[in-house]
Backbone:
């Protein structure tokens, strides 16, 4: 990723020693004063010796109790340590995946890991986008190297491994290692490594390649690339071999020496990870993986580098365009909400009007019924009145007749009876 | 987010002490860039000084220096050269400002220079803000050498004005030009006068950073006492005491460029190139550029935002975060509005429904009333009929009785008449 120097520049000879060959030293001095930072993520099933390997690599005892297999999901635990070696200060963060591979359903195992890695990228991106930012003193928490621990089955990669590595290979530098490799014989190991490598290739998993573009380290790096994945053994116990105390694991049938290159690839791992390529791992994380994350994130938010006419946007234009678009969206949403309310009001009004109409109809019907009833009563009344009138007439006529009869007959008894009756 | 760190002691050599070497190696591979601006009236020996500093014929017959070209207005010109030393490549850009201070009316002659510096910042900001970031060539001005004419009296108003306007945009290193026209005493006086005026006007010239190293600090203090540096440059090599040196030949002797007793050239060269080149770049990147960037980005967000927001305070948020906050605020506002509208709606609906209910109740009541009325009438009618029927029945009964009586009486009469009854 070096800048193509010398574009439009002419090379001129120097007539003596100017002194800018001290620039690398000036840069180095500044970075030593500033201190270094490195973050390692260990991914692997419980019990593969992740913590032990870290302790062995860094010659110290890091935090942590061995975890049980009963974790309900995968969580990531990170610890940061300050280490110093001669005048070099290193802020080392070790992140462990707790509970990886322990669940019955491992479909979502990789998710917490991806989320964690993305969160670190996001934090850096947020800092980078701030108006007032302090990138120079920012504690970089992005994962620079991911050691992927492969179980020493001797057969092939587990599907969990393939799935996880495929999800991680575009986000982090993956260095696959065969853990607890003292459980595999040398011949089996060679076959195992070939199987693993071919499975990775056929599944399109991009693991980290030690860089071969710098002549001073190209050779060693390319040799080491052919030894991947490294078969490691970790141990913090020391055993006396000859007249030296060495880190080893003692078995009844022999002693596995961690730093013996015939026994395992520990030395190779340490050499590559720490002594030769630590800075490159950090650089690749920043210039490749982080840039990819950033690009995706910005594109997701709708940022582009060129407008529809393919002219490059200036920062101001980009932000303003974004802002206008976003304000427009908000206006639209507001308008939509208002419209929705207007609609609801309309609908409700219609509903209520309908109910009112029904009510009036109901009462109109009732009124009509009532009118009918009333008419019936009126008719009854009228018929009663008619009967009454008829009766009255009859009565009157009868009385008249009786009066006449009385006058004719003159019966006082009748009169008396009548009076009595009255 | 403060990260808790733990100190750990290493029980053996790990190897990250090689990190400085790794950084060294990578920086050499990348190569270095440096942009130096020279400002001063014509004839002050700027080109000669550059040639002397970099021991090269940057300006030669083929590529003449700015003084040899007559300019009416202030121009800003760039020359790029690629120089190599000890395996280290440096892309050096010299920015010239011919015409500066040469006019009769020099008002605003600094403006093209300020514009140039800002445009370089803007280029960097734009390339840093792109979605697809590739190489980010750094053409920002890392240092500005300001040439003061050796009048021996003090700073000219133009000198003060220029430095005041530029000290917060670029690292300003004032130099006394053509120092071989001043005697040591005159020079000493002149320097004191200049530093006094610089302090008086609160001009912030480039300051050497403090280090933890005592030795270094002592050297830094020695340099500070000699500011501003009085320099002499030369394109010619003269033999002095069988040594070939750069110098200026006078009838009375040779003024040697690299002689510490004659002038401060070596101090300048050592400081500018051999010890503080990286620091000049860091200051430009971490301070001057960041100032430009935060001002620029604050203006972007300001443009779209109400005036009553963020009064005078530069937020530490990025414009994106600002937009995000605005969006959240808007969402809250909308929710509130929605709730209010909902409340009003509910209330109105309730009112209407209540009215309808009341109306229904009223109609029902009236209906009931009418029904009761009618029933009363009905009952009354029934009663009346009953009474009537009773009356009629009674009357009819009575009539029959009367009739019978009359019949009986008649029969009696008849019989009487017939002589049957005595």
Residues:
């Amino acid at each position: 990723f070096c800048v193509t120097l010398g574009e439009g520049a002419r090379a001129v000879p120097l007539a003596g020693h100017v002194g800018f060959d001290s620039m690398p030293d000036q840069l180095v001095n500044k970075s030593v004063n500033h201190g270094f930072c490195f973050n390692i993520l260990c991914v692997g099933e419980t019990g593969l010796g992740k913590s032990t390997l870290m302790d062995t690599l860094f010659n110290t005892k890091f935090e942590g109790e061995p975890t049980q297999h009963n974790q309900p999901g995968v969580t990531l635990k990170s610890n940061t340590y300050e280490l110093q070696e001669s005048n070099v200060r290193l802020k080392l963060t070790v992140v462990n995946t707790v509970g990886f591979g322990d669940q019955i359903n491992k479909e979502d195992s990789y998710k917490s890991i991806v989320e964690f890695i993305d969160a670190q990228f996001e934090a850096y991106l947020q800092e980078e986008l701030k108006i007032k930012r302090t990138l120079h003193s920012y504690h970089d928490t992005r994962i620079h190297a991911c050691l992927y621990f492969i179980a020493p089955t001797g057969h092939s990669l587990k599907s969990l491994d393939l799935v996880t590595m495929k999800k991680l290979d575009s986000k982090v530098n993956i260095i696959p290692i065969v853990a607890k490799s003292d459980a595999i014989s040398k011949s089996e190991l060679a076959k195992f490594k070939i199987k693993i490598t071919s499975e990775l290739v056929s599944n399109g998993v991009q693991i980290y390649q030690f860089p071969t573009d710098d002549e001073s380290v190209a050779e060693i790096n390319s040799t080491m690339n052919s030894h991947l994945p490294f078969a490691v053994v970790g141990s913090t116990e020391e055993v006396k071999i000859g007249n030296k105390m060495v880190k080893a694991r003692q078995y009844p049938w022999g002693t596995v020496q961690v730093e013996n290159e015939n026994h395992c690839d520990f030395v190779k791992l340490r050499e590559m990870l720490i002594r030769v390529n630590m800075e490159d791992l950090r650089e690749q994380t920043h210039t490749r993986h982080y840039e990819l994350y950033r690009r995706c994130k910005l594109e997701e938010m709708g940022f582009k580098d060129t407008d529809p006419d393919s002219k490059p946007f200036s920062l101001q234009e980009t932000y303003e365009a974004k802002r206008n678009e976003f304000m427009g969206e908000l206006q639209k949403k507001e308008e939509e909400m208002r419209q929705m309310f207007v609609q609801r009001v309309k609908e409700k009004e219609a509903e209520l009007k309908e109910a009112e109409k029904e009510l009036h109809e109901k009462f109109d019907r009732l009124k009509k019924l009532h009118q009918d009833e009333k008419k019936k009563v009126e008719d009854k009344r009228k018929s009663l009145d008619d009967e009454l009138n008829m009766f009255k007439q009859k009565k009157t006529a009868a009385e008249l007749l009786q009066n006449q009869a009385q006058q004719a007959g003159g019966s006082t008894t009748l009169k008396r009876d009548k009076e009595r009756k009255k | 987010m403060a990260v808790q760190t733990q100190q750990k002691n290493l029980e053996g050599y790990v190897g990250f002490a090689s990190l400085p070497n790794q950084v060294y190696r990578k920086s050499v591979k990348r190569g270095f860039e440096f942009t130096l601006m020279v400002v001063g009236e014509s004839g002050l020996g700027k080109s000669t000084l550059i040639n002397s500093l970099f021991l090269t014929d940057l300006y030669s017959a083929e590529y003449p220096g700015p003084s040899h070209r007559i300019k009416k207005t202030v121009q800003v010109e760039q020359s790029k050269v690629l120089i190599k030393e000890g395996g280290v490549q440096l892309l050096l850009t010299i920015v010239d400002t011919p015409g500066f201070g040469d006019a009769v009316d020099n008002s605003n002659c600094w403006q093209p220079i300020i514009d140039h510096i800002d445009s370089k910042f803007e280029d960097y900001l734009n390339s840093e803000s792109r979605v697809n970031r590739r190489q980010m060539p750094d053409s920002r001005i890392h240092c500005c050498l300001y040439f003061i004419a050796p009048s021996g009296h003090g700073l000219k108003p133009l000198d003060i004005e220029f430095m005041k306007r530029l000290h917060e945009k670029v690292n300003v290193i004032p130099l006394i030009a053509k120092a071989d026209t001043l005697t040591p005493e005159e020079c000493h006086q002149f320097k004191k006068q200049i530093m006094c005026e610089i302090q008086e006007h609160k001009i912030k010239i480039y300051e050497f950073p403090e280090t933890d190293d005592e030795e270094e600090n002592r050297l830094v203090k020695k340099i500070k006492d000699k500011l501003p540096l009085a320099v002499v440059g030369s394109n010619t090599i003269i033999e002095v005491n069988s040594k070939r040196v750069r110098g200026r030949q006078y009838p009375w002797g040779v003024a040697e460029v690299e002689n510490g007793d004659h002038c401060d050239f070596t101090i300048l060269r050592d400081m500018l190139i051999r010890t503080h080149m990286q620091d000049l770049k860091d200051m430009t990147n971490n301070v001057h550029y960041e100032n430009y960037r935060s001002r620029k980005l604050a203006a972007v967000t300001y443009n779209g935002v109400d005036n009553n927001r963020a009064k005078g305070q530069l937020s530490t948020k990025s414009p994106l975060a600002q937009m995000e906050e605005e969006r959240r605020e808007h969402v809250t506002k909308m929710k509130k509005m929605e709730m209010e509208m909902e409340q009003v709606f509910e209330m109105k609906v309730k009112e209407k429904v209540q009215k309808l209910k009341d109306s229904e109740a009223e109609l029902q009541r009236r209906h009931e009333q009418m029904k009761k009325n009618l029933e009363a009438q009905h009952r009354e009618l029934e009663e009346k009929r009953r009474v009537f029927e009773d009356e009629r029945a009674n009357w009819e009964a009575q009539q029959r009785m009367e009739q019978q009586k009359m019949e009986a009486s008649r029969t009696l009469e008849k019989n009487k008449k017939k002589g049957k009854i005595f």
Observations:
- Residues 319-417 of chain B form the longest helix (99 residues).
- The first strand of chain B starts at residue 5 and ends at 7.
- Chain B is about 50% helix and 15% strand.
- Confidence is low (pLDDT under 50) at residues 304-314 of chain B.
